[in-house]
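Example is below:
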Amino acid sequence: MKAQEVFGRKIRFHRNQLGLSQEELAFKAGLDRTYIASVENGKRNVSIETIHKFLSALQISFSDFFADVKEL
């Protein structure tokens, strides 16, 4: 599995855990809803700045988000 697919699945998981729609996450992160969808589907390779936006909107730390990622 590619890194962007792993990232996208984890974003979707955490978004669903919070009960947020893609549109709500997009608003909180300052991103477009279609961009959220493409990230969750593993079609985007995101920058560190965008990762920060996602994790801030999801209220999760980098270390907690990536804690269970052993290798790609």
Q: What stands out?
A: DSSP finds five helices and no strands in the chain. Residues 15 and 58 are 7 Å apart (CA to CA). The chain has a mean pLDDT of 94. Residues 3-17 form the longest helix (15 residues).
